[in-house]
Amino acid sequence: MSREITITALKYNPSDADSQPTFETYTLEETPGMTLYIALTKIKATIDHDLSSDFVCRAGICGACGMVVNGKPSLACKTLTSSFPEGKIDLLPLPTFPLIKDLSVDTGSWMQKMNIRVNSWIVANEPTDISKIEKRISPDVADEVFELDRCIECGLCVASCSTSLMKEDFVGAVGLSRIARFSIDPYDSRTDEDFYELIGDDDGIFGCMSLLACEDHCPKELPLQTKIAYMRRKMVMV
Amino acid sequence: MQVRYTDALIIGGGLAGLRSAIASSKKGLDTIVLSLVPVKRSHSAAAQGGMQASLGNTIMGEGDNEDIHFEDTVKGSDWGCDQDVARMFVNTAPKAIRELASWGVPWNRIRKGDRDVVINAEPTTITEKEEAHGLINARDFGGTKKWRTCYTADATGHTMLYAVTNEAMKNNVQIEDKKEAISLISKDGQCFGAIVRDLKNGDLIAYVAKGTLIATGGYGRIYKQSTNATICKGTGHAIALEAGASMGNMEAIQFHPTPIVPSGILLTEGCRGDGGILRDKDGYRFMPDYEPEKKDLASRDVVSRRMLEHIKKGKGVPSPYGDHLWLDISILGREHIEKNLRDVRDISMTFNGIDPADEGKKGWMPVLPMQHYSMGGIRTTPKGESIDLKGLFSCGESACWDLHGFNRLGGNSVSETVVAGMIVGNYFSDYCTQTDISINTKVIHDALEKQQNYLLALLQKEGTESIYDIKDEMRIIMQNKVGIFRNGKDLAQAVEELKVLLQKSRNISIKNKNTHLNPELEEAYKVPMMLKVALCVAKGARDRTESRGAHYREDYLKRDDENWLKRTLSSWLHEDDLEPTLRYEPLDIMKMEMPPAFRGYGRKGFIIENPLSQKRQEEVDAIIKAHTGDRYALQEKLMPYTLQACYKSKNQRLGDEDE
After folding, report:
1. Is B583 a catalytic residue?
2. How far is CA B75 from CA B82, B93, B115, B403, in A?
3. Could you tell me where the DSSP H helices lie in B270-331?
4. Are the CB atoms for B193 and B181 separated by under 8 Å?
């Protein structure tokens, strides 16, 4: 049994002087198992060739398709149209990130800047001889690092974050969880003092106001609340 | 005219491109990586199950080494691969995985003592050795003799891609996303960089480089049903083809047995590697009937065909999307699934509302083979350089150097991306270091202007065809006529129909006249590129009158070593051509370390033997018999190959001296 659904999306091209922000509403027939990826692909091919959005993996893995769906930052590809009983869906681009056009935002530049800002990579004192047997790591520690390495940099935490809206350079839950991740990686030789240099300020761990919408919206269900609290306590003690 | 000069230009920001960029940046070269999307969103991230490397740490991988990995890879390829390349690969893979560990990939580690696993659908207990505790673990995958696939749950590609991207940023690689190379700059058989479109503002920029490397992944999106991400359109292949580079074995397309129906999202081979099984409409486990030895874990080409064979016997499960089969991992237990197959569970629950950890039929996931991987690609030497175009390199899925022949083993692809990034990346940076180019600015200007004019002409077209319809038709033709089971009649039709579509694509009209941020314009220049790639696939398949690996001809059931032990090379000779020109490159049996034989799975007795196979086997046997010394020396005698010293060194394993 299929029904008609209506999808309303912001249309705006900030690089075009003639463009004005408007809302465009599309009506289409819902198909079984329809996701917003399927719906928007159909709209783009048949109704509005001009609508821009970002989809890559369409499987909830790559983090490209964050948008605000009926007021909630979500991954569009993982959102089923059937989860809205009224059949009305409003789409807005993610806030905080520069708007490219319509539903497409520039998360790439933001994430690259953040990654460089927090030195989001392993810093090791000793070189690794790759022809020798690898360093032994406790299976539990490896699991713990993996848990935090599951972040897909979709930016939903940043788009949900009040501090991010006010402070342009705030590294967000994504940046803080990166540091939490490297701080427990046995291959990384940095100390808490080193991490303090990176995030021990108002753009880092002390900028967070603990409103924690980041945790509510994280599609990978990362333990952001616990990890931010943990890092803050550590950084206070440095 | 916007021109940027660099030493090393890398097109494609997945694992292969980024690992190559690290190699080049470490040599002090100015290195730029261009990517359609933020690089951490590249399709490498979607690799789930793992990466093959013969560490031999787990008890189920004990005794594993390069020789066994080599043998599995060659058999998997149905003897289509370049055995020199396979040797380079297997020797570097353990180094790659250890390097990745040091860059932050949190590989699953071995816990000493007893562990409950499922083998051949039976609960079993294995005991890991004390001395292996804390070393990198491995799981079972199809077509392998040992448990060799190292993993981080079912998000292996993700953790690898993040580690490699982070390392690239640390090494000052300049990463530019939302940039698309739309043609190469070439003159007199040499490549000088690319004309690049900035997808944020539509600007065209000429990137002039000493060396250019294409690492743009596969071309699965030419099919209607594919596990590939939306960006895997083969445009990297198309720009190389248009600049005069040859493609190798484009007809070698892999169909993965277990994408979920109907979305086509992949469920990793790790599902079956960890003990999951395929069932039919009666709940019956059918694979052992077809493949008594490898059962559900024969190579992907074989399992996919057996599944369709079983469906043809009326054993499929009817659904609105056609018949499918079931993948049952519920037998692995909830704890295992929620830890090691977490993304699979998430996908199944989100897109199908099925919790695969639920016991019994309730937890079975609907699956059907779909396009998954492109074995073919830009034909290169073992060093990664195009055989036609100087200064153009390629590695990873976009290349055909040729590790996979006619079928790739699961776990060998992410492994290849990084290994090739190490090896080819090094050769590429050597080239960029040693090469100085001199190019007239007029050549750059002309190349840029040509693209500018082309895009403007597209916008002004007032034809009758719709680019969206053309794309849909192409994807349906590929799906129905160039799929898992192929025959001469359908393939010939496919070629003709695709030619018509290519012709039609020159007679379109575009409603949206903006030069930038115009999705319709992007379709208009991409679809003709995809059609050229599709034509290479279809024509290569039409003319290859044998069955080898994933290329299966119902009208030529045998692997024909007598006539077809050769690589298809396709090239696009003239801009206005409607189809590629094919030629062939023979494989030399007399130089093979492993002459052609039966794979050990798939149909028996379906080989047209080449007399040289037996002759070479006798030679090999005699060398082995006369050999004294270790396996490394024997390998050198059988098939000496060239590899950078840092990668050719021995890989230490548990029990080796000087641990």
Report:
1. no
2. 12, 18, 31, 11
3. 270-273, 287-290, 300-310
4. no
B167 and A121 within 8 Å at the Cβ level: the answer is yes
Helices and strands (DSSP H and E) totals, chain B: 18, 25
User: Crossing angle for the helix pair B156-170 and B412-434, nearest 10 degrees?
Assistant: 20
B637-650 residue pLDDT tens: 999 999 999 999 99
Q: In Å, how far is B379's CA from the nearest CA of chain A?
A: 27
Tell me whether the CATH fold assigned to A4-104 matches the one assigned to A106-125+136-236.
no
Using CA of residue B199, residue A68, residue B263, residue B341, what is the dihedral sign? positive
> Per DSSP, what are the bridge partners of residue B183?
B195
pLDDT tens digits along B195-242: 999 999 999 999 999 999 999 999 999 999 999 999 999 999 999 999
Percent of chain B with pLDDT over 90: 95
According to CATH, the topology of domain A4-104 is Ubiquitin-like (UB roll) (3.10.20)
Active site residue B256: yes
Task: Evaluate whether ipTM surpasses 0.95.
Answer: yes
User: Which DSSP letter does residue A25 get?
Assistant: E
CATH number attached to the domain at A106-125+136-236: 1.10.1060.10
| B444 vs B2: CA distance, rounded Å | 10
> Residue B66 is encoded by which pair of tokens?
């390069």
Residue with tokens 């199908």: B352
User: What is d(CA A231, CA A220) in angstroms, rounded to the nearest whole number?
Assistant: 20
C-alpha to C-alpha distance for B468 and A9, rounded to whole angstroms: 22
Q: Are A131 and A175 in contact (CB under 8 A)?
A: no
Contact residues on chain A for B200, CB-CB shorter than 8 A: 15, 100, 106
- Distance (Å) from the alpha carbon of A164 to chain B's nearest alpha carbon: 20
Cβ separation B40–A153 shorter than 8 A: yes
- Backbone dihedral angles phi then psi of residue A109, each to the nearest 5 degrees: -65, -40
Domain ranges of chain A: 4-104, 106-125+136-236
Amino acid at residue number B197: R
Overall pTM surpassing 0.90 (yes/no): yes
DSSP symbols for B515-544 = SSS-HHHHHHHHHHHHHHHHHHHHHHHHH-
Cα B271 to chain centroid distance, Å, stands at 20
**A121 to B166: CB separation less than 8 angstroms, yes or no:** yes
- Structure-token match 């004192």, residue found: A125
Out of B256, B345, B408, B553, the active site residue is B256
